[in-house]
Amino acid sequence: MLFNSYLFIFIFLPLVLITYFQLENYRKYHWGICWLIFASFVYYGWWKPQFLLLLFGSILANAIFGKILCSGGRYAKSYRSAVVATGIAFNLGVLAFFKYTDFFVANVDDLLGFDFALPNILLPIGVSFITFQKIAFLVDAYRGQVKQFSVRNFSLFVTFFPQLIAGPIVHHAEIIPQFSKKRDPTTRSEDLAIGWSIFCLGLFKKVVVADTCAGYADAGYGLLHSGSSLDLATAWTAVLAYSFQLYYDFSGYSDMAVGLARMFGIQFPANFNSPYKSTGIIEFWRRWHISLSRFLRDYLYFPLGGNRYGSIRRYINVMIVMVLGGLWHGANWVFPVWGAIHGFLLIINHAWRNLRLSQTSIFNTRMVRRSFVGFTFLTVTLAWIPFRSNTLHGAWQMLNSLFAIPLDLSSARALLIQFYDLRFAVVWLAVVAAATWVLPNSYQIFRRFNPVDNLSREQLTSAWAIKKLDWKVTWILAGMFVLSLLHLSHVSPFLYFQF
Amino acid sequence: MQPQFVRTFVSASVLLLGLFFVFTLIIDPYGVSPISISHERVNQFKPARIDIDRLIKPFEVWRYQPKTIFLGSSRVQQGFDPSVMNGSRFAPAYNASIPASTVALNVSNLKAYVALDRQLKTVIFELFLYPFIKAKNSAFVDRQQDQKFNFLESATMLFASWDALRASGETLFHNLVRNTPVYEIKPGGYFYYPPGHDAKSLFTGFAAGIWKLQDTRPDMQLDPDAFESLREIVDICRKNNLELILLLTPNHAYDDFYVDSVGAWGLMKEWLDRITNVATVYSFSQPNAWVNEPVSSHMTYWNDPYHFTLEMGRQIQLKLIGSRSEVGPDNFMVRLTANGVAEHIEQRRQAVRQWAQTEKEFIARFDEERRKWMASKESGNK
Q1: Is ipTM over 0.85?
Q2: If B33 and its partner were Cys, which of A5, A404, B28, B223 is the partner (CB 3.0–4.6 Å)?
Q3: Phi, psi dihedral angles at B110 (to 5 degrees)
Q4: What is the percentage of chain A residues whose pLDDT exceeds 70?
Q5: How many C-beta atoms lie closer than 10 Å to residue A351's C-beta?
Q6: B8–A478 C-beta distance less than 8 A
Q7: Of A477, A478, A486, the CB nearest to B160
Q8: Are A194 and A443 spatial neighbours (Cβ–Cβ below 8 Å)?
Q9: What percentage of residues in chain A have a pLDDT greater than 90?
Q10: Number of domains in chain B
Q11: Which residues of A are catalytic?
Q12: Which domain, by its residues, includes B25?
């Protein structure tokens, strides 16, 4: 079930909300939690019910591991170490089996000349996100940072449907305590209004902005994959369109997740904070997929040694983290390559920051900072090419097309006319680009209502912040909602579902 | 504040949706609105009613409940205005053909039409050789089979989508500003060419285009799946007590020359042998003055080498309903049985070879393009 579907918006969500509110009215808070767990299982099982067994088994196993790790001094340290190692191995094993078996077999076949048949294992949606959440939980339980937990709250922490299949990768310490809070009715109506408003913004970003960009990106990349060549203009259109598609797809999804959770009184962390406004790659990764960056930092980069053993070791650690982070996105060589590109860019950025020259005032002028924003955007956009391409060869072809001399406007342009008007695409991308750099993000717009818990109001300062949900704001939101509804007739899944 | 938010939000959404529906139902860009108002300078011409056959045709079959439907490819879509059937036992008829459809897609469409149309009595199905030839890219065929008609989904796209709003805007703009006839699918389901169509340029492009097409069917073998689909069409008609008319539609000499030059008469014979064993075929592809109409910019019977005009389609329909106003050549329609296939093929072969002797310019161009194609194949193989 997709957030951007009639079924979710008009049947599932109202039903879950109404029942949850009724249980709150009768102060049946525990039943409310159970209801949300049940609803989340329905949500998860809607696509392939057989994966519910996997979800259930995984929760059960991790709850047992967690209970052992949280039992204070009852067990010896070596025993607890073995349990946490088993827990991590179990979770990574599940991920590896479902996500990487085909990839592994295909590579063994290629490298060693075997002819093993691909098992064609279907990837359960969201398994990558769930795995990381559970690993973080087990590691923290082992470190003594989780004192106690109930299986009920743990189950909801893992399955809560707004974050179940595409994040944010929430941390138990920021979510589980919220399940025990009891809302009063006045807060509830405000949560509902704010949550719904953020959800509408996210829906608009996804179905109106991202999906329109997707048409241009898919047409260009599709032609290239089918063996046609692209001229300079159509290649840049495809590459830029994909850059904005991914941006608004993920931004839209993150807003919808935050909005949905807020309707149930749960505050999520921000996962997306205008990353294309970053002045460098380091800043980019502090704004893009924030919860993944946090996980990789806390549970991979720091354990590897972080920056404690000198610059060289630090750069090696950065590269390891980014390559593995890339591989997490998918079982295809294009993803670790994408990760390696970002690792390389991060190393350069760190090295640049270590130079005294970078601290001079000339690099802090508004003009230069703006040029850094443009340069970062361009670099990130080019790095998306392997991310979007099916193969490294395809990525190389697209890269070549970007710098092809436009002498021959080739048959590709004629073919593209079947899909879209290039002039309209250029205008659309210009509007989207302007909106990306000029307009505030959703959290800035709703800063007065504390939309997320990991960004302070000061971090979200904006002249565009709304003071209250008055009739003007409501009309604008209603207009966006209606436009989004009209776009729903083209069903398209979120890009991050596939990871 | 919050109850007020909910009230305002709901009222605003309902009002905006209401405005959307009023606008799109009045402008009616796809010609499917139940209001059906047609106004000059507003929505008389419908530029958005094109390339959406798969969406609108099942919907219109349900809406108009025709007694007769035409099934087939773009040749049928461009050739048959079903209003010609008015007054006959076939009326009301509807052109439910889908351009570029495979035989398998026609099966899936027929199933949908049978379920949607309780008045259906006759199915007229077009026979065209190429959908029966194995395509290089069979994924395209598989994809077509997967495209099952979903009534609710189609209705949503036609009535409650952003596309409908955009198409309404385009329609209003076109009628207000340009106000000229456009390419569009007319209410009977057939494709309309606005005045000024130049057939000659498309005939000129045939010699080069046909060799590009050849790459899509390199083996020139009949596709068993297509025959299986035809058998399914026959079964569906039997099961639902429907009359099935198989039409071997006209083939211009250009295409017959191509068949001759690639040595595909044997293939054509095998195809017709197998089909005439399944059901009776009404053939309109015998060589005659209409089928071999000389090429010019404004042709009476051909839009291009593959697509015959509404006039040709009108005459075919008049012949089918037994009208006296039909004025076609003597051999315009032939009831083709298994026994007559060999003679039919021989007639066409001889006629096209005779025709070729008078078309030196075309033959030279055709051979030149073939040489180029062969050379590119050879260099590709190297």
Answers
A1: no
A2: B28
A3: -60, -40
A4: 94
A5: 12
A6: yes
A7: A486
A8: no
A9: 54
A10: 1
A11: 329
A12: 2-380
